[in-house]
Each structure stands twice: as structure tokens, then as C-alpha cells.
Amino acid sequence: MDRLLGCTLLLGALASPLRAQGWIEIERPRVQRLAPPEVVRVSSAVRMEVLGRVVRVEVEERFQNKGGTVAEGTYLYPLPGEAVFQNFSLWMGEQEFRGEMMNADQARGIYEEIVRRRKDPALLSLAGHGLVRAQVFPIQPGETRRVALRYAQLPERAGDALRIRYAAGSRGAGPTDVRLILPDGDQYGVPYSPTHEIETRHERGRLEVRVEPGPGGDLELF
């Protein structure tokens, strides 16, 4: 008997960029004779795979220094409180560096410090989230850095449906490509979204759902 797949992806675009997907906190140089460093997210790809009662999430993001000077800083990614962190990677050329995972209590102090510095209380909405943190090595003007992180979480149930949450927000000019994969896709009903356009593809029992770019706000996928 088919089951109904319920999936809610929180893709709300906020006025503040300090929400959801990762960002880089720049260490400002004391003297700026050229255009200051400006690191922006140029692309983000989210892959979620449903394996029984576990959802494995992989997020890959690319950041580019669009400023006129070398940029250094810290990459920060708020991790949902119920998620289980697996690993994180930052590439500098062919060399791979690892990040560290901080619990919600440790992360709160960092969030509050950024709020004080930026006068942006929206970041406090991440209270209760963990935090993945990694030092970003110098990024030359025009250079791009790639980061990737992986975690797992148990989806909620809404009746007979599965409910998955992912906070993406709006960060930089780059698009967010979101795909949901179900290896045992024959066990699920036909996906439907009342808020966004989606594409589905069945192949040898495998179901893939791709979310089309759309308006801000919550995305619901059943």
C-alpha cells in the first residue's frame, strides 16, 4: 500500500542574511586601502536521501571573494538541534580541511556576539541550534572556496506522512538547488507541493524530487 510522503522545506527569505545556510564571518583588516573583502555565497546544493526513518543531508556551498583585498574569516553553519553531525570539509585547492562541531550552548555565545556586533536580533532565532565552525584560509580577490557538510536526522511523522524540515534562507546571489531522493520510491505516493513547482522522476524504483526555484516562504511538499 502506498504511503504518502510529507515533506516541508523551510526556504523562507529574510531581510537579514544571517539565517539558515552557512555564511562566512570576515575578519576585517585594520587598514583598508582597497575595496574591502566581500565574500558571498554563489551557489548551494542540498541533497537529501530518505533511508527508512533516517534522512541523510549533504550541503555543498561555494563562496567567492568579490572584494578587492584578501579575505580571511570563519565559516559558520547552524545545525538543527535534532540533527546528528557527520563530517565537514573545506577545500583549499586540492587540500581538504576539517571543521568542528559545537553544541547549542557553545553556539549561543557566538550567535549573541554576532548580534551585538551587527545589531541584528534575527540571528537569535537560531537559539537551540548547534554550530559547525571552520577557519577559512585566505581567499584572494576573485577566488572561490568550496565547503561541504553532512548530517543525519529523523523526520517527523504527520499521520501516515513523513515530514522533513530544512532551513535555507536567502544568502548571496547564488541559487539553491534542492533535491530529495527516495531509493524505494515505489513505496510512496505522488509528491505534490501547494507552494512551489516540483519535478519528479521515477527510474527503476527510485524517486527523485527536484524543487524549482520559487518565491520565498515555506515550501510544503506532500
Topology (SSEs and partners):
Layout (H helix, E strand, L loop, with lengths): L6 E4 L12 E4 L12 E13 L2 E12 L5 E9 L4 E9 L2 E4 L1 E3 L1 H15 L11 E10 L4 E10 L2 E3 L2 E3 L12 E7 L15 E6 L2 E6 L6 E4 L1
Parallel strand pairs: 3-13
Antiparallel strand pairs: 1-16, 2-5, 3-4, 4-10, 5-9, 6-7, 6-10, 8-9, 11-12, 13-15, 14-15
Q: Overview of this structure, please?
A:
The chain is mostly beta strands and 222 residues long. 7% of the residues lie in helices and 48% in strands. It has one helix at residues 104-118, and strands at 7-10, 23-26, 39-51, 54-65, 71-79, 84-92, 95-98, 100-102, 130-139, 144-153, 156-158, 161-163, 176-182, 198-203, 206-211, 218-221. An eight-stranded mixed beta sheet has the order 7-6-10-4-3-13-15-14, with no helix packed on it. A hairpin with a 2-residue loop joins strand 14 (198-203) and strand 15. The protein is globular and about 50 Å long. The model is unreliable at 1-20 (pLDDT under 50).
